[in-house]
Amino acid sequence: MSDGPLPHAREDFDVAAYVRRVRGGPCFVCAVVAGDPAYVFEQVVFEDDLHIAFLDRYPTLPGKVLVAPKAHVEHVVRDLDEEAYVRLMRTVRRVALAVEAVVPSERTYLLSLGSGQGNAHLHWHIAPLPPGTPYERQQFHALMTENGVIPWSPRQAADLAERLRAALAGPAATRLPEGREEELTGGGVNRIVRVGGTVRRPARRWTPAVHALLDHLAAAGFGGAPRAHGCDGEGREVLDFLPGVVPNYPLPAYAMTDEALAKVGALLRDYHDATVGFAPPEGGEWYFPPRVPAEVVCHGDVAPYNCVFREGRPVAFIDFDTAHPGPRVWDVAYAAYRFVPLHDPGRDESAPGVEEQARRLRVFADAYRLGVKDREALTRTARARLEHLVAHMRAEAAAGHEAFAAHVAEGHDLLYLTDSAHIARHEVLFLAALSSEGQGGRVGMSAG
Ligand SMILES: [Zn+2]
């Protein structure tokens, strides 16, 4: 990963000098609001007309963020009317959810402290407690600068701020006012907007089949997909907006944990199982023609950029446009390629090394409870899947599809072929990892 773990170790802190600075100096929150370049650690991660959120220069916990009103007000309850207080707290929650998505934590502390005798500008602390902190080092102990602060560099602060800004740029966990449209990022091929609690996307010839599938999933009790609500008056399909964060490459740390990888595998298994027995509507068309054997309805693009994470955990897949009946392994192989990921580390320096890829591939296959035959087919299916993708991309580009033409112009097709060759080179290692006896005994005991 380009973004290494945040430093955790605390070092002694000159509290007396700090106290002299805050009691004698100008208001540091107002200085950050004014953009004072001296505040290199106080990277701004979020701001609107009324509020600002920035990194804590002297973090007692890794990933600590401060949220403040831009106006110099001092008293947390007396100086704000109810509406202003609620608006501030909504911002605190929004930023805290982003902190949770980016910084590993077992609990998030929220505090408003400060002092009328110095450090008076109202601000809230968002303090993520690292997992596994011993009990006696939690709570007030964790927050006191007398117990040391974490030394870090402006570069590390800039990296953290960038990740928090990316998380905050994703779909917010709060609802927009009804009627207002907001363009969602990551749409790529289509313009996708959010209206209140819904997402609107251009309806296509495959939309009726996809909506029937989403209805079937909801009826089957599968909660890891948006619900469909037909089309609006502008020819757009209407789907539930799913709150959370949607990661992209290079994958943030929370999307690279074994736990996240295993949960994606289990979620994909649940999704596939829920599609068994689904009967597409009469004459329904799919984006891709069905493939044999049609064991399940493949999602067609199971990837981090189509997966909603909440509190660091994958909870749902989105963008079912490319869904089509097909074999389980057709989806599983591509999802493994995307989430392990099986990128050639020679072209993607954020990709794990090949031994780690093999280990993670096994974690994913086990979490899916992938059968023996599908394990044997996984690497060749991943390569076939990538070659299929390249052929599709080039055909669409040649037919004048602008987004695909741009991808080809940027050389995406060649990257996929590079990765396919990487998978071929290490096929023996990957297959050995998939088939070796693990702690749970022989692989492929379950159906599938
Ligand atoms: Zn101030």
Automatic annotation (TrEMBL):
GO molecular function terms noted in the UniProt entry: transferase activity
Top-level taxon of origin: Bacteria
GO aspect biological process, one term: nucleotide metabolic process
Span(s) of short sequence motif Histidine triad motif: 121-125
Domain HIT: 28-136
Keyword Transferase: yes
Active-site residues (renumbered): H123
Protein name: Phosphotransferase
Organism: Microbispora catharanthi
